[in-house]
Write a structure and sequence with these properties.
Blueprint lengths: L32 E12 L5 E12 L4 E12 L11 E7 L8 E7 L1
Bound molecules: zinc ion.
């Protein structure tokens, strides 16, 4: 198998092993990624080339001097060369709006 050449996306991440010819792929296509990079767990991978990523965090509440649990949840584009599954920890990067709800793209699966 010939290893496909990957672009430099400007973020320190491991390029995927798989191949694809997707223009919306940050590694093999022409999709530029932006500054914001998040890390989360794939909650759902039911739709094609789309994953729902969720991450939990704590927010300190000054009034009660305690932490409250919060979570973020976002839909992200997942090209075929990465194809993250449910339960995978992934890193997502902000990109241009790809559809009504997708403004993020999966850049790598964290082992
Ligand atoms: Zn690709």
């Amino acid at each position: 198998m010939v290893k496909q050449k990957t672009r430099n996306i400007g973020i320190e991440a491991k390029p995927p092993e798989g191949v694809c010819e997707d223009l919306k792929c940050p590694w093999h296509g022409t999709l530029p990624v932006r500054k914001l990079v998040l890390k989360g767990v794939v909650e759902s991978a039911k739709a094609s080339k789309t994953v729902i990523v969720r991450w939990d965090y704590h927010n300190y509440m000054t009034k009660y001097e305690r932490y409250e649990r919060r979570n973020g949840r976002v839909a992200a584009y997942c090209p075929l060369c990465i194809s993250a599954k449910k339960g995978d920890t992934v890193r997502i990067a902000e990109c241009r709006p790809l559809s009504k709800t997708k403004k993020f793209v999966v850049i790598e699966v964290v082992k």
